[in-house]
Design brief:
This protein is mostly helical. The protein folds into two domains: about 10-100, Arc Repressor Mutant, subunit A (Orthogonal Bundle); about 135-220, no CATH class. It is about 60% helix and about 10% strand. The chain contains seven helices and five strands. The chain has helices at about 20-30, 55-60, 65-75, 95-100, 105-155, 160-170, 190-220, and strands at about 40, 45, 50, 80-85, 90-95. The strands form two sheets. A three-stranded antiparallel β-sheet has the order 3-5-4. The chain has a two-stranded antiparallel sheet with strand order 1-2. Strand 4 (about 80-85) and strand 5 form a beta hairpin. Helix 2 crosses helix 3 (about 65-75).
């Protein structure tokens, strides 16, 4: 046999789900039922029907004949199947077979799932975008506050010339591409006072080197 059948998760709520014999028999019948109408020995067997016998079902499922009789009776009484027995065979009709085993129902279910998934995806994307915008706003507020704080800390060292402090601040407060972090924040260790001392020393060295270069050019 080829093809497939459709099994919905709501089968877990079915009254016979936990009865192993009834469950096995029922889905065995669904698997064996005709997917389309066809004739058997001059008799039309419709879609969702099958011709079988209790002994044959017992042999296929390796369940006792009495257990098959009991399971069929439960399925018949609960209107899951309709039994029609003759002296040669038993005709079993799966009730609502078309409702669960049509290509249309499968496609509709897939479409509904896709729509639901798209809605969830769009909602999630919208939420993510909103959260990202909120985070950017928070980060902007935080970086602005940190810029003010860093500038205040730098200019507390009033013993240095304002021009020195400004150039020091301008360099170390430069923001990254995302405008979320200052240059000095990338360093694991950063002590303003010591960095300022080095900055001033470098400025003096650069000034001295520039003067020496100017004198050299003048003497030529």
């Amino acid at each position: 046999m080829i093809g497939h059948v459709i099994l919905h998760r709501d089968v877990m709520e079915w009254e016979w789900y936990q009865n192993s014999n009834v469950f096995r028999l029922y889905f065995h019948l669904i698997l064996k039922a005709n997917f389309k109408d066809k004739k058997w020995q001059g008799q039309l067997i419709k879609r969702g029907q099958l011709i079988t016998s209790i002994s044959h079902l017992a042999s296929e499922l390796m369940i006792s004949v009495q257990s098959i009789r009991t399971a069929l009776s439960k399925l018949d009484d609960s209107n899951n199947i309709v039994l029609k027995s003759t002296n040669r065979f038993t005709l079993i009709t799966i009730v609502n077979y078309n409702k669960y085993q049509t290509a249309k129902s499968y496609i509709n279910k897939q479409h509904n799932n896709q729509v639901t998934n798209n809605q969830h995806s769009n909602n999630k994307q919208s939420t993510t975008t909103k959260e990202r915008n909120n985070n950017n706003k928070v980060n902007k507020e935080k970086i602005e506050a940190r810029l003010v704080k860093f500038k205040k800390q730098v200019f507390e060292y009033s013993k240095y010339d304002l021009k020195i402090l400004k150039s020091f601040y301008d360099y170390w407060s430069e923001l990254n591409v995302n405008k979320t972090k200052m240059r000095f924040e990338k360093d694991e260790f950063f002590e303003i006072e010591k960095r300022l001392e080095k900055w001033v020393a470098n400025e003096k060295l650069n000034f001295k080197q520039a003067n020496n270069k100017a004198k050299l050019l003048t003497n030529r």
